[in-house]
Amino acid sequence: MAGEIGHIVVDANGPACPCGLRGCLETLAAGPAIARRAMEALAADARSSLAGVDPLDAADVYEAAAAGDPLAVRVADEVGAMLARAIHLLVMTYDIEVVAVGGGVARAGEAFLDPLLRALDRMREASPLARQVLRSGVVHVLPAADTGAWGAIALARSAAAAASPTVIGTEVGDG
Predict the structure, then answer these.
(1) Which pLDDT does position 157 carry in this prediction?
(2) Number of domains into which the chain is organized
(3) Alpha-carbon distance 86 to 11, whole Å?
(4) Backbone phi and psi for residue 132, each to the nearest 5 degrees, phi listed first
(5) 76/66 Cα distance (integer angstroms)
(6) Inside any domain, residue 23
(7) Which of 104, 173, 110 shows the shortest CA–CA distance to 139?
(8) How far is CA 20 from the centre of its chain?
(9) Whole domain around residue 74: which residue ranges?
(10) How far apart are CA 139 and CA 110, in angstroms?
(11) pTM score, two decimals?
(12) What is the DSSP letter of 170?
């Protein structure tokens, strides 16, 4: 499960997760959670371009945020802040230099990335330690990629780079 951050608890009072905990990142920042947040906000204040969109999904929310819809911008900002907290947790715990973010929601491009980067900037502004560890460029979005596969590639490259330069490739035969 290393690298699977969907079950990091970012809000202990958050929604129940199928894993048995409450407030896992997945229950707050994955596509269905983003749509749910927007629908809850619409129920409280239907003044939004999202009113009447049925079924509503995360792509709709980010499209509306990109167009400046205040309700969608608020939801995108909340999600960005939660993701920033999870990234901060990972960086502080494991001294990670790069966090690759992928999946369907990341396909929203700047509407997804900008709120996340603004939240990281706020953390840097508030803390010299955060400024030091949350370096600019810590987040890389891989919207069309399987981030798990890219992580495996990065590990293999790291292991290969650490190997002795005298090691060469060889074929193993059947006999």
Answers:
(1) 74
(2) 1
(3) 10
(4) -75, -45
(5) 10
(6) yes
(7) 110
(8) 21
(9) 5-159
(10) 13
(11) 0.81
(12) -
pLDDT band at 149 (very low <50, low <70, confident <90, very high): low
Instruction: Give the three-state DSSP class for 101.
Output: strand
Helix, strand, coil: what percent of the chain each, to 5?
55, 5, 35
The DSSP string of 26-45 is: HHHHSHHHHHHHHHHHHHH-
pLDDT tens profile 84-142: 999 999 899 888 888 888 888 888 989 999 999 999 999 999 999 999 999 988 898 87
Domain presence at residue 87: yes
Which amino acid type is present at position 173? Answer: G
Residue 171 reports pLDDT greater than 50: no
Output the DSSP codes for 10-76: S-TTS-B-TTS-BSBHHHHHSHHHHHHHHHHHHHH---STTTT-SS--HHHHHHHHHTT-HHHHHHH
Instruction: Note whether 35 and 58 are within 8 A (CB).
Output: yes
> Residue 23 is encoded by which pair of tokens?
């407030």
- Domain assignment present for residue 175? The answer is no
- Contact between residue 91 and residue 133 where contact means Cβ atoms under 8 Å apart: yes
Domain of residue 127, CATH code: 3.30.420.40
Residue 65 lies in a domain: yes
- CB of 66 closer than 8 Å to CB of 54: no
